[in-house]
Every structure is written in C-alpha cells, then in structure tokens.
Amino acid sequence: MKQSLTFLSWLLCAVLLSQSANHDLLKVWYTQPASRWVEALPIGNGRLGGMFFGNPACEQLQMNEETVWAGEPGNNLPKGFNQVLPQVRELIFAGREDEAQDLALTRFPRRVGGDNNYGMPYQTVGDLWIDFPGHEQAVNYYRELDIARAIGKVTYQVGEVTFQREYFASAIDQVMVVRLTASQKKHISCTLSMSSPHQSKRVVVDGGQLMLSGTGSDFENKKGRVAFSAQVLPLVQGGDLLCNDSTITITGANSVTLLVSIGTNFKNYRDISGDAALMAANIIDKAKAKSYPQLQGDHERDYRTLFDRVQLELGVTDAVKKPTDQRVIDFAKGNDPQMAALYFQFGRYLLISSSRPGTQPANLQGIWNDLLEPSWDSKYTVNINTEMNYWPAEVTNLSELHEPLFAMLHDLAQTGADAAREMYGARGWVMHHNTDIWRFTGPIDGPFYGLWPMGGAWLTQHMWQHYLYSGNVSFLKGVYPILKGCAQFYADVLQREPKNGWLVVSPSMSPENAHRKGVSLTAGTTMDNQLVFDVFSNAIVASELLGIDPSFADSLRVMRQALPPMQIGQHGQLQEWLSDWDRMGDHHRHVSHLYGLYPGNQVSPRMQPELFAAARNSLIYRGDVSTGWSMGWKVNLWARLLDGNHAFKLLCDQIAPAPLEMKGEKGGTYPNLFDAHPPFQIDGNFGCTSGIAEMLIQSHDGAIHLLPALPDAWNTGAVKGLRARGAFTIDMSWANGRVTALTVHSGIGGMCRLRLPNALSGQVVLTPAADDSPCPNPLMAASVIKPPLMNDQVNLVGVTLPQTLLFDFVTMPGKSYSFK
Ligand code: FUC
C-alpha cells in the first residue's frame, strides 16, 4: 500500500511538472486588442521596454529605454540642515516632535523650490506606430504574451488572409523586434511612423531607417541632458519600400522584420558623454546580420536559461480556458489555482525583462512607462518599493538579476558619503527614502515623508541576503566596504534617548505613518531599531568571516547591546514606535515595524513566541485590503506567520480587477497582470511572487522549512528550482499537504536542516533534530535578539504552531539528495 502510494505521488509529480512545461499554461492572452496602456503587454530586455497594443488597423509599440530620465548629474542635499539638526533632536527628545518637524521643514519644504530638486522623473521615449489600411474589419482576433518564451503574438484575419505579429526584446542583440507575416504572399502593406511627447523630439527618415531623437526634460532645478535616439530598421521581404520625410510605407511585402534600437548618451550617473545615435546605429548594424529565426532563437535560449530554472504547478482546472482578463475577474471565486502559478511566473518574467546584469535596477514601474511625469516620478522609493522589487530575486532562482541593485548601491555609497558628511557630520554613507538615476541621496517631499535616513540600511540587506543564499565569500569581500560604511554612519549618528538610555536614530520615522495628526517625525522607531540591528550584525559577521576590522566590529557589538528591544504594547501589538502610540484602527499601508518578521528574520515563532504573537496582532489590526504593494507585503508576512490561508486571502484581494481610478489606496490587478497601487506600480507583482515562494519554502529561521504556509487551495502541487539560504535548490511535490517527493541540490555543501510536515526517507539518513538545538548551518540561522519588552497590562494569546519534524543531514558541494 505504502509503495503504491509513493509511486502514485511520483506519478503525480511527473504529470504536474510536465503540465507546467506545457507552454499554454504560461500564456497571458486576450480576445481583443488593448484599449488602454494597462491592457497592453510588456516586453523587455532589462534596458529596453516595449508595450504592444495589438490593434489590427494601427499597431502601437510604446518604447522605453531605462536611462531616459529628466535632468542631469548632481545631488540634492538641502543646505544648512546640519545647523538645525541638534535642535531637531532636542525637540524630539522633549516630546515636541511637531516643532521638530516644522524646524526641519525650514530646510527642505514639502514642495521643492529654489535651487534644489526632489529627484527626476523616468520618461518614455515615445511610440512606434504601424498603420495597416483595411485591417479595421479584422476577425478571429487573438493576442498573447508567452512568458515561457518571452514572445508576444497577435493574430487575426482580414478576408481570407491570416495576419500575424510577433514581438520580443532581445538581451543578446539589444534590440526590440517586431515581425509581421501573413498566410498569403504580398499581403503586408503598412506605414511606419514615430511620435513622442518630448518637446525636443525630431522624427526623420534617413538611410532607410525611421529615427526619433530627443532629450530628457528640464525638471525642477535641472536641465534635461539625456539625449536619446530611437532607430527603426525595416527589413522587408518582397514588396516595396517608400521613404518619406518622416514615414516609411511598405506595400505588398511577404514579411517584414522591424529592428528597434535605442541609444542614449548616458554612461553612468556622473557621465553623459556617450553618443546616442552612434550607440543605436551600432546595435542595429550587428543585429541586422542575423536572420529573424536566429534573432528569435538566440533571444529565447537566453531568456529560458533564467526562466526555466523554476517550475510551479498548483493544479489545473477548466478556468485556464478563459482569457486572462476574465481569470483576473474570477480568481477570488476560487477554482483557478493555476492563475496563482501564472501570476508567480509573471513576476519572474517581469524581473528577467526589467533587470539584467549591467542595466539599471527596476524602478517603480520596472522599465515600462508611457509618460513624461509618471506618479512619484517612477523613481526608486526605498522605504519599501525598490526592496520589494528584488524580493523574488534569490528565492525564485534569479540571483544574478540582483546585480543592478548592487551596482546602484556602489554608486549610492559614494553620493551618500556627501549626504552623511554634509547633513549629519558623520562618516560612512546615508540615503533617505528615494533616489533616481543620478543617485541623489538627500531627503525629498518635506520631513514628514523624507526625513528617514534608513534607505541604505534596508538596501544593503539585499547584499547580505545574496551572500546567505550563495555563500559567496568573494562577493561579500567586494561589498564589505559598503556594509561597513553603512554601519559607520549609524555608529556616528545614534543618540542616547533620555528615558531608557537606548541608542536610537533621530530624527527619523516609521515610514510615512503619523504617530499623531500630521506628525511622523520621532526617534527610535521599531523598524529603525530592527534595521540598525541588522546593519551592525551583518558588518560584525562579515568582519569575522573576512578576518578584518576586529576593533570596529567590537565597537558595533557594544552599540548593538544598547539598541532598544522590540516592545509589546497595550493592545498586544508589536509596537510601531518607541512609545506605545499604536492605534487599533490604523490601517496605514506601510507595515514598517513588521520588517523584522519579513523580510527580516528577527521574529521567530520558536525563539520569540511573544513577539510572533504580537506581530500577528499588529498585522490583524492593520487589515488586509490596501495598495497593491501593501497587499504583496502582507502575503509574505502571513506566510511568515505560517498562515497559508490568510496569505492566500491576500492573493485573492490582489488578483482582482484594479479600480478604474488611477490613484488610490485599493490595489488589484490590471488586465495585463500589472499590479495596481493604483496606478501601475510593479512592486506589487514582485511582492506576490516572493510571497507565493515564501508560502512554499522558507529558510530564515534555522532550517529549510518546506510547505510552511500551504493554503487549503493548493493542497497538491509541485515546484522545481526554488532556492534556500545556504546555497540549496529545492524540488518537491506534495499531496494532501504532505511532502511526497523531495530533492535537495547542494551548491556549496554543508549541513542541511529540514523542517517539514512529515517524515521522508531516501539515499542519505535524515537525523532527527530537537526544535531547540542550534542551527547547524550559519547561513540559515535566525537572528538572536534581545528579549522583547512586555507591557504588564498585556495578556498575550499564544499562537499554535503547525506540527513539524526537524531533520539534519550532511551535504557535499554539487551533490543532490532525493527523498520520498
Ligand atoms: C511610498 C508609498 C506610496 C507609493 C510610493 C511610490 O511612498 O507610501 O504608497 O508606493 O512610495
């Protein structure tokens, strides 16, 4: 009986994974063209982004190049902030936070004015238009984005002829490609044109190419100096090509391949001495030497080396027969588990398409933006949003896509050294809650939002996590100066608060939340304490591992002891602030004090059960429905709270039609699967992708925990290729909530500790371990922090944890271990 069950579960696993290899399940598809931008479908190669609408009579490809931003090099440090800083701190410690905030406001106002700036907007390049006369009467229309291949497609019929378009953005050849074919020869007739909302735009036809050039906008105190050149080369088979001043008309062709190349003069955040037109032309020259099948084949192979690393199968129902927009409408009604797998993989698609080694990191809209002044300038908001973009990078096996974020941190450690020195008189480096392509590090939007000197503290966690997932000591060595500089800043600025003598960051805030009407400014918020704890701990462990800076590490150890403990407040909640100011009815979108639960690892159900219960209370009173990214965060948080059904509930709130209003605090999903803040903000996509992974595997709390938060809706499934800290890769299948087959691939060897719902046996012996035995692998150990401070009035109701078993085994580098 047992044997046949095992065989059945293997069979199930094989069937499930072969189903997920079935590409049709990884298509986003529609039966109508896009009628607005959030229905168009994204292609991208990390640097270039395109949104295709698929209109039969008039195709629109909205184009982005990641370095087209307004402005020019330069930082935005407010003048004279250091003069008011001592008084701001005094006022805060005297409980006069409103006056402190007003005083800081005199140095940088809510709205930018004078000779400063609050960061530059990321900008669209413009649009490529392809007019097809006579195609207004198209029938049998179909539009898709195949995220398993990163290729878009549109087909329709006009009369007897079937027309097809294909679209992709190649990272190998650095071009976007549009391919037009028809079922009968000599039937492709169209006119190409380009447009752009940039004032400086110029469209010409030269040498058989359509060219759009322009310059990024002037903005605030900066002159627009990013020059761009978008060039379109039509390669026509059969038919005629007629070049006019600013359009190209093709008649009677058998097929047309359009190579779209965009260059800019941007070299790095301080250097814009490149030649935009030459760059675009060189790229086209190389790409045109390849045939269409070569371009497409090379693109697909390259893309799949990343995408194919993870397969996820959560079950397939008839719902997959519906177009994607309908599935978004129906998801919360249930019975479409594959939609969650599609949404998960779509997040991976977006990361692969918007963040490649050598490119800029994904911004608030990844790489896709059709405006000159998008919401929040589509900058890098680093009090949650940029971090969330990279949450899926390690766990979903796209580790190298983290690189652009690390490269940005190398820049920020330089521009942030000026901010540390000029604003705070400190060593090291600091940034506040935003940056842009010019790597500004000063505060923006007035002190209520902007006086949060913790952006670097959070972003550097990504470097540390990259180390934990890879065990790559030479990477750690390379980034150590950045981790050290970040720790040095806090070592210099921490202040002793008067009540308990704890060391705290002041001034600061719990991002964007008011502790009393109109006032966010304060000192020693829970998130700040958690972040400084991690910054110090990372620098300490790195110095030990690398054998450098022992006395600096000692000084950090002493200061770490003096950081405030987490506190449990009057409502049984994890306190958001140093004082017990939390309000039960506070549904603020930021849940900053829960950083220690996720993405941090300072709230373990086993080591700090009181904190765990308190964090849960905090999340309950914060509520579920909020902006897209807030719901994405909460999926991860409920997964960390080991409550799969609640995490799934948040997914249902998020995979639901986005409101029509383009601004607001109720998120959802647009027809093209983009996350709605609203408006479109890509972080919510990435947050849900990491959240789904976090429901299936966790590795922050002293073990690789398999199926830690499996919802009832995904009772049976299979996943291949998720990553765990300690450089492990996990393939597993499960049925009825129990792991039925497991393979652990070990990258660097070392002890592996598994926590799972049921026992397994296999080629090596799993040794049972006790729940309280120390974690045998330092890369997956939880932080051991000071015990929480309890409010005497609080009667905490404990949380019952699901039954799990704990096993250890030894692994060798490069070896795989299977169990069932
Ligand atoms: C933070 C959030 C907002 C928005 C913005 C880009 O300021 O509070 O909701 O996501 O970033």
UniProtKB/TrEMBL annotation:
Keywords: Signal. InterPro entries: 6-hairpin_glycosidase_sf (IPR008928), 6hp_glycosidase-like_sf (IPR012341), AFCA-like_C (IPR049053), Alpha-L-fucosidase (IPR016518), GH95_cat (IPR054363), GH95_N_dom (IPR027414). Residues 1-23 form the signal peptide. GO terms for biological process: carbohydrate metabolic process. GO terms for molecular function: alpha-L-fucosidase activity. The keyword Nucleotide-binding does not apply. Residues 698-760 form the Alpha fucosidase A-like C-terminal domain. Residues 29-269 form the Glycosyl hydrolase family 95 N-terminal domain. The keyword Signal applies. Residues 291-696 form the Glycosyl hydrolase family 95 catalytic domain. This is Alpha-L-fucosidase 2.
